Each structure stands twice: as C-alpha cells, then as structure tokens.
Amino acid sequence: MSTTDEYVRIDAAVDPLAAVTRLAASGRFEEYVVYERPGEWIFAGESLGKIELDTHELRVTWDGATRTGEWSGRPMAVLEEALQSLPLGPRRAFGWVGFECCAYTFGAEAHLQGGIELAHLMIPRVEVTVSESGATIVGGDSSDHDAIRDLLTAPDAAVRTAAPTDIGTDATGYRDRVAAAVDEIKQGRYQKVILSRKVELGFEVDVPESYRLGRENNTPARSFLLRLGGLEAAGFSPELVASVDELGVVTTEPLAGTRAFGRGDAEDLAARMDLESDPKEIVEHAVSVRTSMAEIESVAEAGTSHVSDFMSVRERGSVQHLASTVRGQLASNHSHWDALEALSPSVTASGIPKDASIDTIFRLDGAPRGLYSGAVLVVSPGGNLEATLVLRAVYQAGGQAWLRAGAGVIGQSSPDREFEETCEKLGSVAPYVVAAARS
After folding, report:
1. Beta carbons of 195 and 361 less than 8 angstroms apart
2. How far apart are CA 82 and CA 2, in angstroms?
3. DSSP 8-state class, residue 188
4. Suppose 343 and one of 123, 204, 242, 311 were both cysteines; which one would form an S-S bond, judging by CB atoms 3.0 to 4.6 Å apart?
5. Could you give the residue numbers annotated as active site?
6. What does the pLDDT read at residue 32?
7. Range of 193-197, 219-223, 280-284, 407-411 with top mean pLDDT
8. What's the pLDDT tens digit per position in 87-131?
C-alpha cells in the first residue's frame, strides 16, 4: 500500500483511550503498538519494516523484502545496527525486547534452550498521536486518514465486563521457590532476586478491551497495547527502565517495596506507613537505587549521575511502591542503546547482583519470561529512546493467555508474604481481563 509522510491534523474532542482501543480493535491494522506517555497516546499501525531477533536468527524486513541471517554479540547492539541499516528518515520504531536478552549480557546463554524470541521492532506505515484535543496522523494514504478519522470520533461503546480469574492458587510452587532463594541468599550467593509466577487464564482474551478496562482502573507511569507477530499484550507499566531524551539525559525509575492500595483511605494510609517503616522494604529499595546509580554511571559523563525524589511513595493501581528517580548525562562514546543495555533488565525485575540473580531466575522461575520484565520501546532516529518496564500485563500467544507477577526476595523474606505480594500486583490486571466474544 502507498504511504506518505504528510501530517494530517484532526481537531476534535477525543477520548484518547477509547480512540486508540477502537483503532486496535478495528481489524484494519494487522500489527500495531499503542504506547501511552503523559499527555498523549501513540498508535503505530501496520509494519512498513520490522526487525525480529530470536536465539538463532535475525530477520530484517523493509517494504515487503526480508533478509535473514545468523547473528552474534549483544542483542541491543544487533538491534541498533539493524535499525541503522534501514532508510528510516524521520520514522520511529516501536516494539519490545524480552527478558532473555540479558542472557547474552550476563553470560547465561546456556540457559536458553530451543528457539526463543528476544525482540520485535516495527516501523509503522501510519502513526497516530492522540490527545484530548484531537489527533495528528503521519503516513498512510487518504483511505487510512478517512478510516482513522471515523474511528477516532465514533460513538463510544459500552465496555464489556471482565471474566472471573483465580489468582490465589499456587500452581507453580511459588512459596517453595521463594524458600529456596532465601536459603541461597543466606548462604551469601546473592542479595536479592525477583521470582515470578505465571497464571494461566484458560480462555481467549479480548486484549484491546482488556487494555481499555484495565487502563480505566489503573494509574501507570506508562501503558501499552500491542499485537506483533504471534504475540498480543496489554499492560500498565509502573516504571521506566530507561529513557534518553533529546539532550542526552538518561533516566531510570527503580521501584522496590510494595503494599496494597485501593482498599479505603484508612487502610491505604496504614499500608503506606507500614511500607515506609518496614526495614525489609527499605533495604530492598536502597540496594536497588544503589545498583541503578552504578549502571547509569557506567554510561554517563563522570559526576553527572544523581538521585532525586528518593524513596517517595507512588501509587500504581492496586499497589503502592517506594520509588526513586536516577539520572545522568549520556557520555559521548555511548549510544541510547548502550544506556538501555546497561539498565536492562530492570533491577526491580531481576535482582542484586544482576549476574547471580539472573542465573537464579533462569534456574528457579521455570519457563522463559519473554516479554514479562522486558520492555516496550519507542525509538527515534535522533537518539531518543524510551523503554517502559513490562510487569502488570496480560499476554496471549499460541492459543494461550496468561498473567505473570513477581516479588523481590531477600534474606528477610517470608514465602507467604511474597506470594501475597504477587496477588496484590496481579490485582492490577486480573479484575479487568475481558474474555473474547464467542463467534
């Protein structure tokens, strides 16, 4: 199909969440990524080009032609080089990188058995930026513009109700795995590890509708909805893994320390006070911030790294977290992809030190994490990058749908409390998962 770089502006009162959900559910775009950041939603639809990386092969597609080949080295560097090989012009790339990318950074490739998808980026044929005052369309043709205008301003439809989901069964032996990790920590093998558990849903999910309902009931730092290749996902990210802005400022937002939220003013306040005074949670957060600071220092100009908003409390849906912001000025000999590699996977989704905790995750977490605890990305040609952490999400692929959540395990951890924490986090998603309509 033809495309253009022309800007088309639609000035109209718009419900951005409903609008991007309609675009995703319309069937007009075979692949798409929706990415929300403060003040705007971006809908990237239909791949003009894409980059797919798995454990065995790199596939680069542009304008209908695909080249394939083996690859070696570090996944982030491979993705950077592949993007640079394409005639992008001003176009942005959207997509995801999975947790298993870290195996190559931390010498854990032996844990990767079989073909595992590591990353999937797409360069959209049409990009729509939506806010409450209207939308801007870049790319596409006149028929796209007419269809998008109709979808953006269509009458709103009622949101369907969620399907019941049981999150309270320990089907993966989570408590036993936490106990095993506590024993290893007490032996001095590492300080902290984030172990997760997978909850199979047992029914087909309407992912766009689940995104809309979930976003109406969550307060994320960022949110996303995607269908790329065989994977669908929708999520409500509590933090940035990494961002690099137009001035080269690198930012990460480690969250560690969790209590339930949304149970009433008195109970929420009591939980907050408990969170702010719990030695286990304070230690967990402090060591996470220290690690994030060291990672930014590894790619930043000397003396520019600093912490702000230290150990504040941020509310994220059904939970509240201790949070801090760490920043530094990217050094001239490092790229935005280097910054993402240095900060991936997020310390709050892996552990401390990362090499030992990542080895533990591969040993104790069971099945590959894939997108869970990876990141959804927006990458601009000028070097801007934003990567948001994938935690509170619903996933669907290969006829299966699931949720996943984890908790930070340290020497003072209780298996029952960490299991309870996963339930609190799953509470940000599970009550809003909508089953697909039966045909």
Report:
1. yes
2. 24
3. T
4. 242
5. 239
6. 98
7. 193-197
8. 998 899 999 999 999 999 999 999 998 889 999 999 999 999 999
For residue 84, with 0-12 CB atoms within 10 Å meaning exposed, 13-18 middle and 19 or more buried, which class applies? exposed
For residue 241, the one-letter residue type is: V
Closest listed residue to residue 253, CA positions, set 269, 240, 238, 244? 240
Query: Residue 99 in contact with residue 198, Cβ under 8 Å?
Result: no
CA-closest candidate to residue 410, choices 355, 374, 344, 357: 357
Q: What angle do CA 23, 25, 30 make, to 5 degrees?
A: 85
Name the phi and psi angles at 235, rounded to 5: -155, 165
Neighbour tally for 284: CB within 10 Å? 25
Q: Is 180 helix (H, G, I), strand (E, B) or coil?
A: helix
**C-alpha span between 24 and 152 (Å, rounded):** 11
Tell me the C-alpha distance between 353 and 345, whole Å.
12
Phi, psi of 257 (to 5 degrees): 105, 120
Do you find a cis peptide bond into 345, omega within 30 degrees of 0? yes
Assign residue 210 a region: left if phi > 0, alpha if psi is -120 to 50, beta otherwise? alpha
